[in-house]
Amino acid sequence: MTDIDITTPEPISEAELVFEGALRPKSLDEFVGQAKVRGQLQLLLQAAGIQGRTADHILLAGPPGLGKTTLAMIVAHESGKPLRMSSGPAIQHAGDLAAVLSSLVPGEVLFIDEIHRMARSAEEMLYLAMEDFRIDIMVGKGAGATSVPLDLAPFTLVGATTRSGMLPNPLRDRFGFTAHLEFYADSELEQVLHRAARMLDFDIDREGLAEIAGRSRGTPRIANRLLRRVRDYVLVHGGDADLAAVKAALTLYDVDELGLDRLDRAVMDIMLTRFGGGPVGLNTLAVSVGEEAETIESVVEPFLVRIGLITRTPRGRVATPQAFAHFGVANPQGSFLPGVL
Ligand SMILES: Nc1ncnc2c1ncn2[C@@H]1O[C@H](COP(=O)(O)OP(=O)(O)OP(=O)(O)O)[C@@H](O)[C@H]1O
Ligand SMILES: [Mg+2]
User: Fold this and answer.
1) What is the predicted ipTM?
2) Domain of 285?
3) From ligand 2's centre to the CA of 65, what distance in Å?
4) Fewest CB atoms within 10 Å of the CB: 104, 210, 244, 328?
5) Do 138 and 218 fall into the same domain?
């Protein structure tokens, strides 16, 4: 691993997770950006509150580091209910899920992170649990085995996934609401950073914050991580935390103006140098960089499209003239690219 990984959207250490916990917004009001999702969640929680019932099941979908775990905690906090945390990889048998479900207290919020990685057998148990707050438990073995119904306390399931395309339809259909989290605008990341700097008691000016925001890949997790590195830099070198200090610190860590991470760069490099800008099919790209097609499609591509480095066309992904310019690669087709106006 090289220091380029400072811009990866996944958590990079245990220490970072502890740090994140301290900076997590606790309420919907404190949660920056995602205005649409916030409004939708607010309505859903308020309606449930008025009727005195548990809120509908909620699916949070989107790339890493955009606030899924944070929102799950907020749902529990806003409904005044306890939160139980679990994850798809921890549920490898139906029995693992039965143990969790049967111990929930009324109204509890059950968070299943990476829900797309749950075992098939558990998925089927979850369908019934979500719909009827009931599960069937198998007792005995062989010919004498019988299934015994068990009533559950009503609960709200909050599922999180970076790969909503990998969820089976019957599971997806049982969520009352799906929130698709989007990459954050630079102005929103500035707010995230402003709040974090205040909490860290770090006195950094607006220009400095704006510069970090612009290099954070639309991702609050990365913004907070870069802020810490800048804080280190100022601590060691002295002086003000201003634009010059931010630029010096981020140059030291090889974070470019667009905040691209290693995988983003690998994809762009392959597209520009090996395929002359494309069009390139998703699977070809995935194989070329040694990643799953799902990761390219759900984590890398949305960001590269959003910042205008690639476009999707019916014949595949195409690099834009801006991409050639940013990476300083000669554009074999001049300014004209197939499928791009
Ligand atoms: N809207 C937001 N406002 C302020 N801070 C945020 C926001 N969203 C995320 N953060 C910060 O970013 C960090 C990462 O967020 P979180 O852990 O919720 O991401 P995630 O979507 O669950 O990521 P993963 O897919 O890796 O589990 C948190 O520490 C939180 O402080
Ligand atoms: Mg998470």
Assistant:
1) 0.98
2) 262-327
3) 7
4) 328
5) no
